Fold this sequence. Notes:
7% helix
Amino acid sequence: MTIRANFAVGDFERIVGARLKYGTDLIEGIEAICEANQITSATIVSCFGSFQKCGFVYLIPADSSKIGVAYNEMIVKEGPIEFLHGTGVICQREGKYATHFHGSMCDQYGAVFGGHFIKGENPVITVDLVLAEVKGMEFHRKHDEETGAIQFYPIEKGSKFSRSIEE
């Protein structure tokens, strides 16, 4: 079996607990909290609540893709939506926030679904969240030649590249 990975090593810095209020977009709210606290790289420790509606995508087969998959067209589900669990990383891309966030939800009939959340498409009823700032490393999102898509690149402070494993 081949093992390949990019990684960086750091520590947690501050922990921020917050509640996003009615009408706030999930990702825009998380990024505003980070900006207010001068946080550029963090991870979501806990995140759940409810949405007025949600917009998300998920992977589908795609022969035209370098790796055989691509995201579908955005799906919008009207609420109320129960937001069961979300997780993600707050990253930077060209000096701006590029939060990568996935979650699971269920509709008013109990049907469960989920995927990759689209910024600006998830106004909350309320969301409770805890995020942890990282120190000693930075989280970036940038184009990856191998996949042809934007990917996660953790880099230790003072370095230009991630550490890697290629076995």
